[in-house]
Specification:
Elements (H helix, E strand, L loop, with lengths): L1 E6 L8 H11 L5 E6 L2 E4 L3 H6 L7 E7 L3 H13 L10
Antiparallel strand pairs: 1-4, 2-3, 2-4
Helix pairs in contact: 1-3
Length: 92
């Protein structure tokens, strides 16, 4: 299991379009992937789960992945967040 912390800088936080893109990228991987904020931990492949986190601009999240392609998943999701959700990374 590996994890990384990233800061969400998008104007709407991790709501609507950014959340949908996050789920889209997460779903391309076989690994189990979670997003953790404070004491809440949700499945990164669930749009409803992501939306319940209420991530605002400038909040930090932890991305956790477990599986054979965990590092690749973490790298792609970090790239997505770092691009402010303007670039969907090449996945698998």
């Amino acid at each position: 299991m590996i994890s990384t912390r990233v800061r969400i800088m998008h104007d709407s936080g991790l709501n609507a379009r950014p959340a949908a893109l996050f789920v889209q990228v997460s779903s391309k991987y076989d690994s189990r992937i979670w997003v953790e904020v404070g004491t809440k931990k949700v499945n990164a492949k669930s749009i409803m789960g992501i939306m319940t986190l209420n991530v605002a601009p400038d909040d930090e999240i932890t991305i956790i992945a477990q599986g054979e392609d965990a590092q690749e998943a973490i790298d792609s999701l970090t790239e997505l967040v770092d691009s402010n959700f303007s670039h969907i990374p090449d996945c698998k």
